[in-house]
Amino acid sequence: MFLMRLIVLLVIVAVLLWLLKRLFSPDSEPQRLEAQSSEDMRQCKYCGVHVPESSAVVRDEETYCCAEHAELDRQ
Length: 75
Ligand SMILES: [Zn+2]
Known about the structure:
The protein has three helices and four strands, in the order H-H-E-E-E-E-H. By secondary structure, the protein is of the alpha+beta class. The chain has a two-stranded antiparallel sheet with strand order 1-2. Strands 3-4 form a two-stranded antiparallel sheet. The chain is elongated, with a radius of gyration of 23 Å. The model has no long low-confidence stretch (mean pLDDT 88). Zinc ion binds at residues 44, 46-47, 49, 64-66, 69.
């Protein structure tokens, strides 16, 4: 049982260290914004909203912001 307690303690310490590391290095946000802005933008055929290519819905070679608009445009 001693080994079990030791493992649990090590896991708790590891989680605490990870949380502290995250608190003191908030530098992951700008990288995400940079990646988003360099992405190709597509315009929704239904509402005209611009969406990143990765989150755009393509149907019948037309681009939409969501599956709902792709469905609405078809009707
Ligand atoms: Zn739309």
